[in-house]
Amino acid sequence: xxxxxxxxxxxxxxxxxxxxxxxxxxxxxxxxxxxxxxxxxxxxxxxxxxxxxxxxxxxxxxxxxxxxxxxxxxxxxxxxxxxxxxxxxxxxxxxxxxxxxxxxxxxxxxxxxxxxxxxxxxxxxxxxxxxxxxxxxxxxxxxxxxxxxxxxxxxxxxxxxxxxxxxxxxxxxxxxxxxxxxxxxxxxxxxxxxxx
Length: 196
What we know:
The protein is α+β, with helices and mostly antiparallel strands. 24% of the residues lie in helices and 31% in strands.
């Protein structure tokens, strides 16, 4: 029993170390952040460009196909609190969205799916990571047959902008999200499956 607990603790520390290294690498390569020059030192229009949404979404609470369940990762503790996460039931997923500062995701348990707009869907297993740079339109959730518990980090400055529901074509890996985006931009309709 003690060996099992020790093994779990060591695995948790290993994943936390890897995750922390990725966070440091990603955040040190940003174009903006806490070490910005004073507003007066910025070129004209630079501050306004940072504030303008970089995707056609709107800020709101989480939009999802199925149920979104906030589920902190108890094994990862920062400043005395479990790190934020989400647990998606099989087949459930977020709508397309983007984050002002980007987002880092680690598949903590189960199997997940994630897709950046213009790319094919990726299937992630426990311990695999993904990064959506600032303003990158993406979605994430569970696989069709398994739940997905994600450890999530929104990079500063934060802000989530929500777009359209992820269609089955994208979720199943048959499209790259361009057709649904064009339809959303033309019609403004977010929901594809209002009865789900």
